[in-house]
Automatic annotation (TrEMBL):
It is found in: Cell membrane. It is a peripheral membrane protein. Its main location: membrane. PANTHER family: IRON(3+)-HYDROXAMATE IMPORT ATP-BINDING PROTEIN FHUC. Residues 4-240 form the ABC transporter domain. This is Iron complex transport system ATP-binding protein. Pfam families: ABC_tran (PF00005).
């Protein structure tokens, strides 16, 4: 499986540059968390990586091939993305939502073959949403809906899954459940997973790597503990009156078997 990476990438809107000279690599079998303050450009970076938005300059590539030259249908078989955009199909049920993930593979009338149905059921099982398979989207809790969205991305069967703040509006138990699910997906599928999030404690606990975005600064990458020890995380979240005690961040949440 190849790497999703950038070379000299600049991102932004209407020629306004948000971040420049971005050189990053999302590798198979890795869970990476993208962290930064509101408005720093995390969503813009994810959309650019997914090919939903043109870069101002530079390149996004999978292996040796720029995504600019990849057929859109083929790109949808390589990169899946969960955005913060609202879905207005409240009368659709969970299975129907997950089935939408098969769009790069089904024919123009959306006819499901045996492989499609198998992928749909596999995704529903892995995300543990079997019990709400027939429930309408409008009746779901935020946590249930986000798991259904992850199941849809899984059904798309891509090498990489990008998620924009998938735990927003969730309580601590559901946030923990979601990150545990991300780790399970990574382990069982070897997909490269990139999550834009504000969940610093969960990112430190579960991520293999952090990408730190700051205003007018290069993106800093590294293992969570290395970025704690170097002070990189503290610089991102500096406050005049308070400080975040990162010495306990890695132990705030731990598996019961680690006690």
């Amino acid at each position: 499986m190849e790497t999703l990476h950038t070379t000299g990438l600049s991102i932004g809107y209407d020629k306004k540059c948000i971040a420049s000279d971005v050189n990053l690599a999302l590798r198979p079998g890795k869970l990476v968390c993208l962290i930064g303050q509101n408005g720093v450009g995390k969503s813009t970076l994810l959309r650019t990586l997914a090919g939903l938005q043109e870069p101002l300059s530079g390149e996004v590539a999978i292996g040796e091939e720029s995504i600019k030259v990849v057929d859109r249908r083929e790109l949808a078989r390589k990169i899946g993305i969960i955005t913060t955009d609202k879905i207005g199909m409240s009368n659709m049920n969970v299975r129907e939502l997950v089935a939408l993930g098969r769009f790069p593979y089904t024919n123009w009338i959306g006819k499901e073959e045996l492989e499609d149905r198998a992928k749909i059921e596999e995704s529903i099982d892995l995300c543990k949403v079997n019990y709400i398979e027939n429930a309408k989207l409008g009746t779901l809790s935020d946590g249930q809906f986000q798991k259904a969205m992850v199941a849809r991305a899984l059904a798309q069967d891509t090498d990489f899954i990008l998620m924009d703040e998938p735990t927003a509006h969730l309580d601590i138990v559901n946030r923990l459940d979601m990150f545990s699910l991300f780790a399970q997906i990574k382990a069982q599928t070897n997909k490269g997973i990139l999550v834009s999030t504000h969940e610093l404690d969960l990112s430190i606990r579960f991520a293999d790597e952090l990408w730190l975005m700051d205003f007018n600064q290069p993106v800093v990458c590294g293992a969570p503990q290395d970025l704690i020890e170097s002070g990189a995380i503290s610089r991102i979240f500096h406050h005049e009156d308070y400080e975040i005690d990162l010495t306990i961040a890695h132990s705030m949440i731990r598996a019961k078997r680690d006690k």
